[in-house]
Amino acid sequence: MSFNDNARLDSSRVRDRRGKGKGLAVGGGLGGGLILILSLIFGPEVVDGLGITDGADSTAGSGSSQSISECLDGADANERLDCRIVGTAESLDSFWQPALAAEGLTYTEPGVTLFTGQTSTGCGSATAAVGPFYCPADEQTYYDTAFFDELVAQYGASGGPLAQEYVVAHEFGHHIQNLTGVLGASARDPQGAESAAVRTELQADCYAGMWAGAAASVPAPGSSEPFLAELTPADVQDALSAASAIGDDRIQSMATGQVNPESWTHGSGDQRQAWFMQGYENSDGGIGACDTFSAANLDSPGA
């Protein structure tokens, strides 16, 4: 999905902490990629409880030499990942404010923070190993931009723009769940193929699809032009590629050669794709179209 070149960006929408943190060396001989896999399968809380991030400090990456203040317009978003995250966040704000107002709800903007290595959050200290995440305690979304390279190199996802934007939209989906009061369900039923955790993640995928289906028709604030241009079939395939790449079944198979649905926390790749498309095809139907908690069959949304 390409940005309209003349769309104006507000770089203050995103906090840039890249290159300002310290990375943690990983104890126990486990590499960061494996910790990311474990986090995606079991959740960062479980991985933190294993103590595998303890160890001597090491120097984090140097971060970007480019300033996020240089993100001025859609043309910059088409060229640079950090600018793309700025524009995606603004597009998501433009979609969710009226979408929630139609439900009688008030939208508040979640924070967006870029970091490298490690960062402090309202949910505690976090490392890049957990991947992008949302912290309900401070209502912030966090992204180590190196994750987007790993998504392609390690997990085989497309490197297209909508694959990256889908990740941001998914984390915003968790913020919507926080505002609607359902986010906490995953903590009470944290794993299993039919668990509340899986239903929570699939709903966030569906919310990402809702935004993607409507983004090209929602004007930017103070403008008649949307941030984003019309999607192409290739754009949609980029998002579906990312959704499939981080399905529990695929990650488990890569990590262990086996698939165990009883330990799922995010759903299979096929389920993640299906719920993204459920939102995409019902972007003007209200958030009820993404009610994974009432779904009798998570494999077939709307059935």
Which spans have pLDDT < 50 for at least 5 consecutive residues? 21-64
Distance between the termini: 29 Å
Share of helical residues? 40-55%
> Reading side by side through the largest sheet, how are the strands ordered?
1-4-8-7
Average pLDDT, rounded to a whole number, is 84
Secondary-structure element series: EEHHEHHEEEEEHHHHHHH
What's the shape? globular
State the helix count: 11
User: Largest sheet, if any?
Assistant: 4 strands, mixed
Strand content range: 5-15%
Radius of gyration, in Å, reads: 18 Å
The helix-and-strand class reads alpha/beta
Per DSSP E runs of 2 or more residues, the count of β-strands stands at: 8
Question: How would you describe this protein?
Answer:
The protein is 43% helix and 9% strand. It contains 11 helices and 8 strands. The strands form 3 sheets. Strands 1-4-8-7 form a 4-stranded mixed beta sheet. Helix 1 crosses helix 10, helix 6 packs across helix 9 and helix 9 packs antiparallel against helix 11. The radius of gyration is 18 Å and the shape is globular. About 15% of the residues have low confidence. It is found in: Membrane.
Overview in brief:
Keywords: Membrane, Transmembrane, Transmembrane helix. The chain has 303 residues and is an alpha/beta fold.
How are the SSEs ordered, and which strands pair?
Layout: E1 15-17, E2 23-24, H1 32-42, H2 44-49, E3 57-58, H3 74-79, H4 81-101, E4 111-115, E5 118-121, E6 124-127, E7 133-135, E8 140-144, H5 146-153, H6 161-180, H7 185-188, H8 196-214, H9 233-245, H10 248-256, H11 269-281
Parallel strand pairs: 1-4, 4-8
Antiparallel strand pairs: 2-3, 5-6, 7-8
Helix pairs in contact: 1-10, 4-6, 6-8, 6-9, 8-11, 9-11
